């Protein structure tokens, strides 16, 4: 922080003592200036040396706790958390300053603000600020204090329904009329005075405060006389109470009946909580007694929980910065038993251990992960090995590499999230992918686990603008999982869902070369621009292993329904299951080559798979350089396609798709890709025949057609590798 900025802050806060030189400070402002210097110094040290983070954290917390500094009778200063500066405000502003406790702060983030080229200097003669061009030598530091947040919300008993009812009951007393008595109490107080006493009583904030007030209205005295009695069992009264109420200028002594009537209470309450003078007159209704534990015990529980190996979220690091996930085989009860086994001298109850686990930590029990990122897992193993060898330099280097990898992966996820929120009328945004193959038939007999089954393919397209999805279904004997099937489904979806105002097509998909990242798809997208269907087309690919998309959430809904199903005999059951997997915005089901419903519907759309590969092969190059590492590709009319290898879409390079002398519009003379059913391998056919013995006879018609066609076909060798096709990822 430059001296000029510090001087301007002094003038703004009224720290200068009015001397024309402006160089002396008043003694009462010394603490504020010291605090200001310490904040700036601590922030600078933190950004320069990571080992100082713990000390700087404590310093920053102390600075925040002392953020309000009284300069004089008119000015106060506070710490601005966003800019890291002390700013002034008037006492009349009534601003609330949030003070942070050290135990509530998990971290402090610092961000360097680039120096500005223009700044203002106070002209002491005119009293005005003059703007000058000068680059500051030091940068400002933005301070962001991050609070700890447990898995469960902090309880607020004052807003609980039972406590609100209890508070309401405190004020629901009704004043009774003062009865006639020998003391003539009714003549001692007017109705107005009685109402004033009653309103003061019910205006107290709690039941406990009312009991304290009632105790103050009682005076204990010895009885003046005793009634003689011959019964030895009856004990003589040992104390007598006098009751009085205080008015503005006098104190009025009342009998017990009048005292109870004025305050609207019963004798039982007076005797139970007031006359007997219990040690604890606190209202204990609805409360439970809890054991108290020392800070040493709680600290040991904290240390134990922090020692459990945990991992961050794979896809939601931005929204769950401080949430951790531990082994799914553990539970709070298991952790409690382990803690007691390691610390037999500490007898902590499960309820207290569970309270600490949920309120002081944001930890969840993760599920077994699938499709784990290979880079993340490799770096994790290397970090653990370097930590075991205490090679901190290598640990820091690997952690930095992993953080860079995760930040690159987050760019793709943030782009999708932003696209979902940004509903532009001129953009059609889609993401697409294949679901995991669905088996047929599903009988759950023992031999099924060793048998080959028929696969049902589901290609899904999710519209990010309106949160709808379309599913294109076909079995493996009617099509493969290649570019022809993908482009046929994409062309159909665009033809039926593109609006006239859509000029930009935005696509998101994974890195599967055989389906989504190949020269045929790029040529198809370029032709959309060449034929003026779209003015601009862009497609984005994620970092491999971090490809979670909205279409995957749609597939998860289908899978959740599927795993609850015991038997599936025909593809029609999957059709009904997919259509009913979501209650709102139900999935649209379409078919490739054959309608797979048990009862065909005339409204269903059945598409023929087109041979795009055969059409494009004559126009495009056999291979394209850089296609493996590209992350963003964009297409525009009358321009060459461009690709970028960075996740942020910077430094685009020219992509050459077409052969020399080719390019422009390609006349679409598309033919059908398949003329009949694709033959299956004999071993798979044999296994399907065995499983059909456990399928009801009325459900076998679909399989009979497959077996009949396969028997009469002689092209098994042409498609020998059909069901062993692999999806290759970078």
Give structural notes.
With about 725 residues, the protein is of the alpha+beta class. The protein has four domains: about 5-145, no CATH class; about 160-225 and about 240-275, no CATH class; about 310-370, no CATH class; about 430-535 and about 545-630 and about 655-725, no CATH class. The chain has 21 helices and 24 strands. Strands 14, 15, 16, 17, 18, 19, 20, 21, 22, 23 and 24 form an eleven-stranded mixed beta sheet that branches. It has a three-stranded antiparallel beta sheet with strand order 1-2-3. The protein has a three-stranded antiparallel beta sheet with strand order 8-9-10. Helix 2 (about 30-50) packs antiparallel against helix 3 (about 55-65) and helix 7 packs across helix 9 (about 265-275). The longest helix is centred in the middle third of the chain and has 30 residues, at about 390-420. The chain starts with a helix and ends in an 18-residue tail after the last helix.
Question: Quick gist of this model?
Answer:
By secondary structure, the protein is an alpha+beta fold. 34% of the residues lie in helices and 16% in strands. The protein has 21 helices and 24 strands.
Mean pLDDT: 75
Strand percentage: 15-25%
Quaternary state of this entry equals single chain
Q: What Rg is obtained from the alpha carbons, in whole angstroms?
A: 39 Å
In total, how many domains does the architecture comprise?
4
Counted by DSSP, the helix tally is 21
Runs in which pLDDT lies below 50 for 5 or more consecutive residues are: 5-55, 60-79, 81-117, 134-146, 714-730
Euclidean distance between termini CA atoms: 48 Å
**Strand count:** 24
Main sheet: strands, sense, barrel:
11 strands, mixed
